[in-house]
């Protein structure tokens, strides 16, 4: 359990990881807790070990939401192995883990996540999409079965989308955070700079719009980032392993790349509160996913 550093006013502050298989609503949950679109959910090709996704500060608590790089079963290369280790490590370092499931669709993918949960940390089972459950009586046996598989610190049904029970979830989470003063200023939403966030947004769109076809090793590099009055000019290279992967990202007549850029730019404008000029292109950097030096340069 967490070591508690006393703070005179009982304020609590600590790290929270949200895990769960794709599509259970993790980013919706975080977005609704933070109250704005800041959860950038690219779970692939992470560049940092410990990424702060967002900070939620209330009168008595500061929740630091950290990202956990995704665990991929399909592609096995050096990068992947490093990332799987990273997930386990991140999960064992946070104060509390929120394991999100969808009640009617429990399956193998959820069990894979379950296997990675830390035994030495409190894990809350968050049953999302409660709004879709007509008869709540049906839900109970299902959850109870799942509950037998792991020693959860609590089970909380919520609806991220409809903002149902999120306060209760935060209260339950708070109980597991150490008593200590806030680490960040109240209005600080993330500790990452805009350049980093811009790269994450482009990468998120690549994965969202191309799904599983996209190679795990895709990365985004911001080659230039300028702020001129209320305009940010951002130049982003999308980096792939092989020439053959280039057309996939560019799409027929450049359609995919255009869509990636448009959606990323719209999110950036929301996030930065300014106009954004975004230029994106695809670059080939052969075999970097298996290159130990490249891993090192990513800080892994
Ligand atoms: N009905 C309902 N739908 C929800 C709820 N929460 C999320 N969704 C929907 O579920 C879908 C997946 O939500 P995401 O937040 O993208 O899920 P995720 O777990 O972050 O997905 P990955 O990024 O792929 O891991 C979206 O269409 C959401 O609108 C909820 O409480 N109720």
UniProtKB/TrEMBL annotation:
Segments carrying the region annotation (G1) are 20-27
Q: Where is the KH type-2 domain?
A: 202-286
Keyword Cytoplasm: yes or no?
yes
According to the UniProt record, where is the region G5?
Answer: 158-160
> Binding residues for GTP, per the UniProt record?
20-27, 67-71, 128-131
**Gene Ontology cellular component?**
cytosol; plasma membrane
**Per UniProt, which keywords does this protein have?**
Cell membrane, Cytoplasm, GTP-binding, Membrane, Nucleotide-binding, Ribosome biogenesis, RNA-binding, rRNA-binding
In Pfam terms, one family for this protein is: MMR_HSR1
Compartments where found: Cytoplasm; Cell membrane
Q: Where is this region: G2?
A: 46-50
Query: Which biological process annotations from GO are given for this protein?
Result: ribosomal small subunit assembly
Membrane topology listed for this record: Peripheral membrane protein
The UniProt entry lists the main location of this chain as: cytoplasm
Entry-linked InterPro entries: G_ERA_dom, GTP-bd, GTPase_Era-like, KH_dom-like_a/b, KH_dom_type_2, KH_sf_prok-type, P-loop_NTPase, Small_GTP-bd
Task: Spell out the molecular function terms from Gene Ontology.
Answer: GTP binding; GTPase activity; ribosomal small subunit binding; small ribosomal subunit rRNA binding
Segments for region (G4): 128-131
**Annotated SUPFAM superfamilies:** P-loop containing nucleoside triphosphate hydrolases (SSF52540), Prokaryotic type KH domain (KH-domain type II) (SSF54814)
Region annotation (G3) ranges: 67-70
- Residue ranges of domain Era-type G in the record: 12-179
Domain of life assignment: Bacteria
Question: Which family does the UniProt entry place this protein in?
Answer: Belongs to the TRAFAC class TrmE-Era-EngA-EngB-Septin-like GTPase superfamily. Era GTPase family.
The task this protein performs is described as: An essential GTPase that binds both GDP and GTP, with rapid nucleotide exchange. Plays a role in 16S rRNA processing and 30S ribosomal subunit biogenesis and possibly also in cell cycle regulation and energy metabolism.
Spell out the subunit comment: Monomer.
Name the chain's protein: GTPase Era
- Give the gene that encodes this protein: era
């Amino acid at each position: 359990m967490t070591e508690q550093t006393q703070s005179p006013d009982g304020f609590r502050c600590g790290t929270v990881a949200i895990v769960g298989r794709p599509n259970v609503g993790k980013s919706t949950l975080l977005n609704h807790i933070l109250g704005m679109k800041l959860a950038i959910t690219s779970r692939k090709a992470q560049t940092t070990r410990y990424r702060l996704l967002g900070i939620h500060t209330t009168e008595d608590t500061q929740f630091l939401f950290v990202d956990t790089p995704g665990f991929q079963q399909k592609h096995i290369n050096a990068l992947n192995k490093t990332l799987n280790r990273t997930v386990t490590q991140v999960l064992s370092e946070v104060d509390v883990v929120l394991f999100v499931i969808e009640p009617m669709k429990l399956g193998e993918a959820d069990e894979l996540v379950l296997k990675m949960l830390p035994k030495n940390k409190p894990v809350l089972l968050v049953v999302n999409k409660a709004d879709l459950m007509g008869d709540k009586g049906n839900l109970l046996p299902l959850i109870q079965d799942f509950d037998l598989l792991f020693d959860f610190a609590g089970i909380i049904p919520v609806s991220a989308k409809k903002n149902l029970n999120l306060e209760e979830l935060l209260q339950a989470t708070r109980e597991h955070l150490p008593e200590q003063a806030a680490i960040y200023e109240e209005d600080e939403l993330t500790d990452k700079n805009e350049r980093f966030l811009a790269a994450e947004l482009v990468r998120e769109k690549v994965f969202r719009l191309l799904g599983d076809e996209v190679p795990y090793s895709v990365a985004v590099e911001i080659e230039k980032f300028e702020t001129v009055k209320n305009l940010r000019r951002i130049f982003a290279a999308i980096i792939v392993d092989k020439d053959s992967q280039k057309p996939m990202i560019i799409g027929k007549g450049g359609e995919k790349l255009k869509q990636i850029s448009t959606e990323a730019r719209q999110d950036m404008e929301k996030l930065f509160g300014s106009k954004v000029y975004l230029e994106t292109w695809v670059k080939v950097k052969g075999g970097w996913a298996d290159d130990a030096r490249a891993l090192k340069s990513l800080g892994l």
